[in-house]
Amino acid sequence: MSSKQQSVTAASLGVGFATGLYGVSFGALSVAAGLDIWQTMALSLLMFSGGSQFAFIGVIATGAGVVPAILSAWLLGVRNGFYAIRMNPVLSVSALLKPIAAQLTIDESNAVSLLGEPDRKKERLGFWLTGAAVFVFWNVFTFVGAVLGSQLGNPTDWGLDAAAAAAFLGLIWPRLNQSKLLVLAVAAAFVATSLSVVLPAGVPVLLSAVLAVGFWLFGMRGGRK
Amino acid sequence: MTLWSAILLSSAMVYSWKLFGYLVPEKFVSNPRIKELAALLTVALLAALVGIQTFVSAEGVAVDARVPALVVAGVLFYLRVPFVVVVVIAAAIAALLRLLF
Question: What ipTM is given for this predicted complex?
């Protein structure tokens, strides 16, 4: 095994374990939001996309009902589609394997696969190994978190509401790499928080998607020079 | 709709993005403007969730133990402290403040 291949393997397992570990916080928060252990496990096994999962339980926890929860989770999953578009020619897998590759197409498997560029073999190794490692660790640790969370009692006594806020901050943090995105983030947080006073729970989160489209259209009008 | 059907439906909808990417020809979607929209949507939704999770409670908008916890979390993320450590510290700060005040 070459040293670069070794480094892709090490990165895959390291990222898989580290990402999996915060499945503990997802499991605990999900139970605090009112889901049972099996519903929590279903999200980690079937939805398998951290941002969408945290959004789903976050919106459920506000008492908004299921429709805004479903839509928030769905909209947050859009980026996986773009990773899939990048991975498709890299993996060039058979039609039979595509549904499995699709389920493992997440932030982390895409990111580690990029480390292997331009070597196709390393890109593929990084994708499959990271995807599989995150899937295994994420689900094991979700279960641990859900069991722990169900023993805790009142979630706010343990600060789990603050933990959920910190989790969302951690998910957005690496994406704030342009001043435009930072401005949008502050505006979206402010607008959603303010509107929550007058609108039914869950709706303000979805309206932030409208704000994003507004920013997008405004950027288009500004034009590329 | 029951919670179970919502979990199954939303999981299928999230999966549909992943599968979609493997089925469409690349040239239809390689437009950088479309990629930019995806990045903007992700940031706006997550930021809205940060705001609501930090300031909104059953009684309306409130500044409570969650706010100092989030400020500390921001500092720790800036210092590149691992995700799970930051989340635990944020919970501990909020829990401690509620115990004391």
Answer: 0.91
